[in-house]
Amino acid sequence: MMKTTMDLDALGFSEWHAGVALAALEPNLQWARVVAVDREAWVVRAASGECVAELAGRFRFGVEEGLDLPGVGDWVTVQVVSPDRAVIHAVGPRRSVLSRKSPGREMAPQLIAANLDAALVVQSCHYDLNTRRLERYLVACREGGVEPVVLLNKADLVDEDELAGLVCDLRGAGITGQIIPLSGVTGQGLDRVEALLEPGKTYGLVGSSGVGKSTLINRLLGREVMATQGVSGTGEGTHTTTRRQLLTLPNGAMVIDTPGIRELGLVGASEGLDESFADIKALAGSCRFGDCTHESEPGCAVRQALAEGSLSEERFRSYQKLGREIEHHDRSYLEKRRKDRAFGRHVRAVMRGKPR
After folding, report:
1. Residue 42: what are its φ and ψ, rounded to 5°?
2. Nearest CA among 30, 27, 34, 29 for reference residue 11
3. How far is residue 37 CA from its own chain's centroid?
4. Could you tell me the domains of the chain?
5. Binding-site residues, please?
6. Which residues belong to the annotated binding site for GTP?
7. 271-315 confidence digits (pLDDT tens)
8. How far apart are CA 88 and CA 70, in angstroms?
């Protein structure tokens, strides 16, 4: 059933969206925001309320890949056909996106969330903290124009000296930006997170399974909404969230909760890589040769920084590994698109020549 009406501004329809939105809507359409996705089911919220939505046939037929489908946080044009049902006709422009390579062998980007003002990247102090994995999240965020904030959750499971050492290690590894230690159980650091969340803005909550995202959301909401499960003897949590959804906090800020990410492959993320590893990018600009591979060329500023210890070998190797992965996935994805388009042209040609 339709829920209480609300202003589009409160849903995050900013001046940017208004400026790039479709020039005019058809008389029977309105803007709505996707607030939940569960397989082939969408829930949208418009000024008139909230309801379940399906894709219009023409729109579905024109979808070439998963990234074209509506995702949580998207603005879509809908036709409300009854108090509890709507039809999605188009996806509006995205101001920012958080995506990854589709899991498995499929070489295509998969949307995680759209139109985020910032991403809260949750890592567990106790068992989950992995600098190399965190770098992947930061690259994905910056590629999509999303500002990342690192939340070191479960701070209650480590002592103060160990926590300070973890933060120091991340800084030493070249991780910049905000890092906030907190505990979804005790509330430690929660005030710092709440101070970040502004009314009318949208924040994505991402991280591996079991890092405590659901517990954190319950604390931010001030009530038990998300199912949670206790941690094991190692401090590892259990995966509980099963769908992506947008939740409105008491102060009017919005948080998109996502299922735990087990595999964060990167595709089309070269700019995000350069931004996340800006120190290495700057060093490379000082190399004697523009096509320096940073292996054995004379006058290599990167090799010099490695020798002097101002750049760690681990960070440089991570940069190289991610760069090779992105290049491989991009090349495979482009080849897949060419094959798909060639097959589509073949099918259309066959259909045109088919006797009526």
Report:
1. -120, 140
2. 34
3. 15
4. 8-91 (2.40.50.140), 97-257 (3.40.50.300), 270-352 (1.10.40.50)
5. 153-156, 207-215, 287, 292, 294, 300
6. 153-156, 207-215
7. 999 999 999 999 999 999 999 999 989 999 999 999 999 999 999
8. 9
